[in-house]
Amino acid sequence: MSSTSLTLLFFVGSVVVSLASGCSSPYQQVRGWCIFVNITAPPNGPGDPITWFQAREFCQESQGDLVSFDDETKLHAVSKHIDLNFREESEQGWVYWVGAHRTNGKWQWVNSRQVNLLSNIWLPDQPSVSATTQHGRLVPADKVHGRRYLRSDDGATGISPAHICERQ
After folding, report:
1. How far apart are CA 89 and CA 95, in angstroms?
2. Quick one: CA torsion of 156, 157, 160, 164, rounded to 10 degrees?
3. What is the pLDDT of residues 99-150, one digit of tens each?
4. Cα–Cα distance between 98 and 72 in angstroms, integer?
5. How many CB atoms sit inside 10 A of residue 67's CB?
6. How far is CA 49 from the centre of its chain?
7. Strands 162-167 and 96-103: what pairing?
């Protein structure tokens, strides 16, 4: 088989896989969800940590929005995806902007669904009742099991080295 035929076969195969998963680049299928983990400040590399607003703008420019963890299953699947594909970041305990935010005193996801404040997706004593905490981050809390939780932070002045986008 010629190299042109192999290239064409690879391209056609890639298109079929992309169409079958329903996720277009840079998104990857993670248990049925189209997810894009974006590292804006890699270790020993160029880039800067960004605010929640900058992370959301980036996601929207890539035809998505910050991820909404409507249930624990998605949070666990995305955590596992991070552990498998971003080993160095996982080991360093990086935090990721996600789509939880507080508007008019109520927590909701960027998809307008209410955030379940009693769910165990939150760290204990979270979300904070402080008036300055307006946005959510995914943070490592259990290195043994690779478990991550939500923590409330100030996304206006706070920065994170990474964020997670989702495309519906």
Report:
1. 9
2. 0
3. 999 988 889 999 999 999 888 898 888 888 777 778 999 998 776 666 788 9
4. 14
5. 31
6. 15
7. parallel
